[in-house]
Design goal:
By secondary structure, the chain is α+β, with helices and mostly antiparallel strands. The chain contains 5 helices and 10 strands. The strands form 2 sheets. Strands 4, 5, 6, 7, 8, 9 and 10 form a 7-stranded mixed beta sheet that branches. A hairpin with a 2-residue loop joins strand 1 and strand 2. The longest helix is centred in the last third of the chain and has 19 residues.
């Protein structure tokens, strides 16, 4: 039970596994504690909780092949002028460390959101990825927060997916060699996205 004001309420998730994992899916409904007798019609309705997706959730929900197709559709929408995507805002936190903000709005698809990312090169010496990110999505009609997703994997995979779209349209049909310079995160994601 959760306490709201002075009354105890019980949350009823649609998916008990999400509750056990500590995530709160949209559509949670709070009802008055049955021990507190109330007339009918006094049920509390909480606003929907935003969806939270961890990196593992994002990986499971976003196979590379589907991401490549999604990036192709996004590039077409952007080129057609249907997407508002201002130039990213980036500022320094300290020497060689940055914070970036990348907002976008696609009115046709009813998508409004932003990626927030930090670049901290010394993280790699601690076994932590140098790029940390989160993506937030909002309902364009109400401005309500819909979802918060881990953005580290999307940052890694999206770049490779866009490269794959380019290869799909510009590579020679008989191309049989792929050259990847480097061996970091982008090299691994490009190797996955560009199979021969």
């Amino acid at each position: 039970p959760w306490r709201r004001g002075l009354e105890m309420v019980h949350a009823k998730p649609r998916d008990p596994q999400c509750a056990e994992a500590g995530r709160f899916p949209r559509g949670w409904r709070a009802t008055l504690n049955p021990a507190h007798r109330r007339p009918l019609g006094t049920e509390l309705q909480w606003p929907p909780m935003p969806l939270w997706l961890s990196e593992a959730d994002v990986r499971a929900a976003l196979p590379m092949a589907e991401l490549i197709d999604a990036m192709e559709a996004a590039l077409i929408a952007f080129s057609a002028g249907r997407v508002v995507q201002p130039v990213r805002t980036v500022f320094g936190i300290r020497e060689r460390c940055f914070f970036g903000l990348m907002p976008a709005f696609d009115s046709d698809a009813s998508i409004l959101g932003a990626k927030l990312v930090t670049v901290i090169p010394e993280n790699t010496a601690k076994g932590v990825d140098s790029h940390q990110a989160v993506i937030v999505l909002f309902d364009p009609a109400s401005g309500a927060l819909l979802a918060v997703t881990d953005g580290r994997y999307i940052t890694e995979a999206r770049t490779a997916a866009v490269s794959a779209v380019s290869v799909r349209h510009m590579a020679r049909a008989d191309a049989g060699v792929l050259a990847i310079l480097g061996s970091g995160v982008q090299a691994r994601s490009h190797f996955e996205a560009l199979p021969l």
